[in-house]
Every structure is written in structure tokens, then in C-alpha cells.
């Protein structure tokens, strides 16, 4: 049973050479943009409305809670990423801190997370794209506008969601630095659109719309219609809106100066996005009754239209259509790097770890794109987002635990970034993530368990015997 606890040494570079090695081409501006591109997306453009439906004006408190938990986790990530600048993120940290079996579970969870995040963002993008097209008089047939599992009348496949997923994969296959430069330009456009939204809604801001502040209470509970309600239920969903900084850590081997660039990328993107989210959420709640925009697939554009800003609503929708793919790009990038790391370690077929001459792991990028497009084409946004949250929360807990374990077992290791008050930040990050996990719907928790039971079977049947640490 030694395979359960065998670990990779913290300072051991993964065996990589030739077409199994990633080239360092990214600097900290690329990484900050990657983080902001991953974080600012469907969460603020779309889930603002869904969250308001769960918590009312208290959704702004949900944003704050989810943001604090993510900030604590980000501090743990910053230390681990600078200590172990390897592709694989929480998977690699767990391998060094807690052993191969836990690493496999976390890697398997990350595969779930990154794949369904790509799908969720694609579905959110589709809502804005269809709204933009409808404003131009172009309406998709019901069979091509929503997925089979959404419950929408006549829904069969969400064709726009499928197409954007495959298009982003094509951009990533062009090359790492080229796609990173494109990402920076799109992130600037996306932030400009959100700033314009705040400015345009300020004249309509009415503090009376924040009362009652907690119409559904604080703790997560089941409402009369059987749906979850409360500030914590919204926080467990809105958590989706904040993470994305972990995608930066998957680019560790491609950073030119990992110790500096990863720290600036993770902490910088998280702080910037927390400020942006609070401003946009407050502006939305003050400018329109939450009962109205909570039912919209494009809440920010809906609020602007309600305020008489028809042209601005079209432009916001256009900005979302153009810029939301940066989120898909960031998470598909992260997914391919987790696959790459697991394949290079022998836990997945090693052929998946091959990269193209332009530095892109082609096979895993294509696999991710196909799988994500299938999910996006069929499933509703809320279910996908909650399932993505489950995988992310598991990875965050594992990173916090790995940070604490290595602080106690290897205090001598050189750490370019050190988590402040680690004995407080680490436990709070883990506890906060566990509480958010428990606040997820029971169906989501069962689906997550089922996914990992399948993963455990794969590990016991194949991966443990093909692991590099097993001597293969």
C-alpha cells in the first residue's frame, strides 16, 4: 500500500525533456491578465442575477464572503506556487504534501473543475450572444438555443456555447505567448465595459432597494419551492465568480521568473477582482429591483435597458460576447496543464504530455475542448457552476493543507513568498472552503462523490501501476 503515501520531493523537478517540456515565455503582466481574465467573467456578468435570486440584496454579502475565502486560499496558493513552480497546481502541491493518492483525487477533481468551468462560461457567453443577436433581429431556433437538460421548450443543443468552446481551443493551439497577448487585449475591453456599467447606473442608484437586506436569511436552506436560498447558498454559488487565480499556478513552468511573477499574478489579480466585483454588484442592486434582473440571462444588459440605456446595453452585451471567452481560455489553459502534469507523472497516458513546437499540449487541449463543448451544449448554467465549485473547493482545501504540512515538516525550504500568519490563514481557508462545500446543493455533492469514485477506480486499476514513482 506504499502507493498511497509515496510523495514527490518538493525540490524535485518533474522529469521532462523534448516534447514533454513546457517553455518559459510568460511574465507577470501575462499572469495577472490570465488571472483577471479567468476571474472576471460569467460570475459577474451572469451569476449576479442568479445570486440575487437566492439572497436578495444580501448577495453583496455573499460576494464579500466568497471573496474573503478566496483571498485566504490565494495566499496559500501564492506560497505553494513560488515554492513549487511546476505545472499542475493543487495536484502537484498535494503530491509533495500528502502523497500520490490524495494528489490523484485532487487532480481528478481539477479535471472536473476546469472542464465544467469552460462549459459554464460558454453557456453564460451564449446567453449574452443570443441577446445581442436578438437585438439585431436574429433569433436562433429553440433547438439550437438551449441544451437538452435545461428544461427549455424545444431545447436540444446550445450551439453558440459549443462553437465558442471549440473556437477558444483553436486560439490556444496557436501558441502560449500568442494566446496570452490576445488575452491581455480582451481583458482590458472587459474591464472597460464593467467600468462603463458602474458609471451609467450611478444616477439611478437608490439605497431603498437594499431593504429588506436579507429577505431569505443568512444560512443556506431550502425554500418553499424546493430551491436553495440564503446568503450562504448564494455565496456557495457565487464562489464560482471569484476563483480563477488557481489557473495562474498551472502556468508555473511557463513563467520567466516564477518566484516574483506567480506571486504578483495570484495576489494582484485577486485584489483587483475583489474591488471590481463589489463595485459592480452594488451598482446593479442600487440601480434595479433585484426581483427583476434576477430572472435575466444577461442581468447587466437588462439593468441598462431598464434604465433607458439601450445603446449601452447593446455595447455591454457586445463586450461580454467579445471578452468572456478569456475565461474559457484561462481555464482551458489550466485544464491542459493539469492533464499535462498528471500524464508526465504517468498517472494518465504519457502520450497526452506531448507538446507542439509552439509550446501547446495539443492532445489534452483538444480533449478538453470536446468534453467541455458536449457539457455546454446540453446542461444548464446553475448546475454546471455548482459542480465546478465542488472541484475547486476540494483543490483549495488540499492546497491549504499542503502549505501547512510543508511548513511544519520542511520549515527550511526557501520560500520566495510566505503566507502571512500561516497558522491562521491556512486553517481559515480550509474551514471556509469546507463550509461553502457543505452549502452546495445535495445533488452537487453526490455528483462530486460519484465523479471521484470513478476516478478512484481508474487509479486503482491503472494509474498506480504506471506512476513514475512506481519505477515505470
Automatic annotation (TrEMBL):
UniProt-listed InterPro entries:
AA/rel_permease1
Q: Does the record bear Aminoacyl-tRNA synthetase in its keywords? A: no
The name this protein goes by in its record: Amino acid permease
Question: From which source organism is this entry?
Answer: Phenylobacterium parvum
User: What does the UniProt entry say about where the protein is found?
Assistant: Membrane
Please give the Gene Ontology molecular function terms for this protein.
amino acid transmembrane transporter activity
GO CC annotation: membrane
Q: What is its main location?
A: membrane
Q: Respond yes or no to whether keyword Transport is given for this record.
A: yes
- What PANTHER family does UniProt report for this protein, alphabetically? CATIONIC AMINO ACID TRANSPORTER 4 (PTHR43243:SF4), INNER MEMBRANE TRANSPORTER YGJI-RELATED (PTHR43243)
Q: Topologically, how does it sit relative to the membrane?
A: Multi-pass membrane protein
Organism phylogeny: Bacteria, Pseudomonadati, Pseudomonadota, Alphaproteobacteria, Caulobacterales
Question: Which keywords, in A-to-Z order, does the entry hold?
Answer: Membrane, Transmembrane, Transmembrane helix, Transport
Bilayer-crossing regions: 31-54, 60-80, 101-125, 156-176, 183-205, 231-252, 264-291, 311-334, 360-381, 387-408, 420-438, 444-462
Amino acid at each position: 500500500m506504499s502507493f498511497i503515501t509515496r510523495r514527490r520531493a518538493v525540490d524535485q523537478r518533474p522529469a521532462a525533456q523534448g516534447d514533454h517540456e513546457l517553455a518559459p515565455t510568460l511574465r507577470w503582466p501575462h499572469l495577472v491578465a490570465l488571472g483577471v481574465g479567468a476571474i472576471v467573467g460569467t460570475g459577474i456578468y451572469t451569476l449576479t442575477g442568479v445570486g440575487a435570486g437566492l439572497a436578495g440584496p444580501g448577495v453583496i454579502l455573499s460576494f464579500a464572503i466568497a471573496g474573503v475565502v478566496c483571498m485566504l486560499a490565494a495566499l496559500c496558493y501564492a506560497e505553494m506556487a513560488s515554492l513549487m513552480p511546476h505545472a499542475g497546481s493543487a495536484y502537484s502541491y498535494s503530491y509533495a504534501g500528502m502523497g500520490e493518492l490524495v494528489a490523484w483525487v485532487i487532480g481528478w477533481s481539477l479535471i472536473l473543475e476546469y472542464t465544467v468551468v469552460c462549459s459554464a462560461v460558454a453557456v453564460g457567453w451564449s446567453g449574452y450572444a443570443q441577446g445581442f443577436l436578438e437585438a439585431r433581429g436574429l433569433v436562433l431556433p429553440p433547438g439550437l438555443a438551449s441544451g437538452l437538460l435545461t428544461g427549455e421548450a424545444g431545447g436540444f443543443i446550445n450551439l453558440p456555447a459549443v462553437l465558442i468552446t471549440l473556437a477558444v481551443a483553436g486560439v490556444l493551439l496557436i501558441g502560449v505567448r500568442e494566446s496570452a497577448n490576445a488575452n491581455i487585449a480582451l481583458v482590458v475591453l472587459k474591464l472597460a465595459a464593467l467600468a462603463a456599467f458602474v458609471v451609467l447606473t450611478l444616477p439611478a442608484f437608490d439605497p431603498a432597494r437594499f431593504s429588506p437586506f436579507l429577505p431569505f436569511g443568512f444560512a443556506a436552506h431550502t425554500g418553499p419551492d424546493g430551491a436553495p436560498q440564503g446568503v450562504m447558498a448564494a455565496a456557495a454559488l457565487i464562489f464560482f465568480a471569484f476563483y480563477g487565480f488557481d489557473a495562474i499556478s498551472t502556468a508555473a513552468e511557463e513563467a520567466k521568473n516564477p518566484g516574483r511573477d506567480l506571486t504578483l499574478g495570484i495576489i494582484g489579480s485577486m485584489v483587483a477582482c475583489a474591488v471590481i466585483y463589489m463595485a459592480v454588484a452594488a451598482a446593479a442592486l442600487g440601480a434595479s429591483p433585484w426581483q427583476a434582473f434576477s430572472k435575466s440571462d444577461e442581468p447587466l444588459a437588462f439593468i441598462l435597458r431598464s434604465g433607458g440605456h439601450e445603446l449601452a446595453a447593446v455595447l455591454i452585451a457586445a463586450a461580454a460576447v467579445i471578452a468572456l471567452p478569456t475565461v474559457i481560455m484561462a481555464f482551458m489553459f489550466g485544464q491542459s496543464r493539469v492533464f499535462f502534469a498528471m500524464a508526465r507523472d504517468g498517472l494518465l497516458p504519457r502520450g497526452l504530455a506531448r507538446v507542439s513546437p509552439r509550446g501547446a499540449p495539443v492532445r489534452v487541449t483538444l480533449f478538453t475542448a470536446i468534453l467541455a463543448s458536449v457539457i455546454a451544449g446540453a446542461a444548464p448554467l446553475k448546475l454546471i457552476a455548482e459542480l465546478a465549485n465542488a472541484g475547486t473547493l476540494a483543490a483549495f482545501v488540499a492546497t491549504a493543507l499542503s502549505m501547512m504540512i510543508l511548513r511544519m515538516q520542511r520549515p527550511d525550504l526557501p520560500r520566495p513568498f510566505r503566507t502571512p500568519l500561516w497558522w491562521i490563514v491556512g486553517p481559515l481557508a480550509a474551514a471556509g472552503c469546507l463550509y461553502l462545500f457543505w452549502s452546495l446543493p445535495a445533488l452537487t455533492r453526490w455528483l462530486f462523490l460519484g465523479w471521484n469514485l470513478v476516478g478512484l477506480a481508474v487509479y486503482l486499476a491503472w494509474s498506480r501501476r504506471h506512476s513514475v514513482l512506481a519505477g515505470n
